[in-house]
Specification:
five-stranded antiparallel beta sheet; single chain; 7 helices; alpha+beta; 189 residues; 33% helix
């Protein structure tokens, strides 16, 4: 990565040095000296903030903030929904991260996260949800539910695949944006 930066700097230096002085740009250092000086400059440290943030799935999340995603292909493509849930707001709020809309019931979702002590692995879900036969039927495509967030400065994450809507509703409840949209904020039980 740093080799690319060095090469880019060298290329920019060469372009600037090649600009005629009649254009109002003059170089006080001959081209070969400028390239040699740039090549000998110390390189930045190996840690790059942008790389660190890309490697940290919790980067950019404050306390009581969660990223909730659902996809049908497990890779973030088909049927992907992605939202940011803010449970520290009063009232709770959400924003769409994919342009498909915000969470329809952020307060219900945050209430369920709070009931789990902020641990996405302990969501209460809707265990008493009365599933229809259609809900119980195996789906043609698996649904993958993923969540990550921070609660009282503790990081939490959850990932699971579901083969039918009933299990997904019972386990993820209103935290799952797609389930919440189908339930329209109503508890069934």
């Amino acid at each position: 990565m740093f080799t690319l930066r060095r090469e880019a700097l060298l290329a920019c230096s060469a372009v600037l040095l090649a600009v005629p002085t009649s254009m109002g740009v003059a170089s006080a250092v001959p081209e070969d000296e400028a390239l040699a000086a740039t090549a000998n400059d110390p390189q930045p440290p190996a840690t790059d903030e942008a790389t660190d943030e890309a490697d940290d799935p919790f980067a950019g999340l404050g306390d009581k903030e969660f990223i909730i995603q659902r996809t049908l292909d497990g890779k973030g493509g088909v049927g992907m929904t992605s939202i940011k849930l803010r449970c520290g707001d009063d009232p709770a709020s959400s924003e769409s991260l994919d342009g498909l809309g915000a969470h329809p019931s952020p307060q219900l979702a945050c209430d369920e996260i709070a009931a789990a002590g902020g641990d996405l692995n302990k969501l209460p879900g809707l265990p008493d949800y009365q599933c229809t036969e259609e809900d119980k039927a195996p789906s043609d495509e698996e649904a993958f539910f993923m969540g990550r967030g921070v609660w009282n400065d503790s990081k939490t994450s959850f990932s699971k695949s579901f083969t039918n809507v009933c299990d997904e509703i019972r386990e993820t409840g209103h935290v799952n944006q797609v389930v919440a949209a189908d339930l329209k904020g109503e508890h069934k039980g």
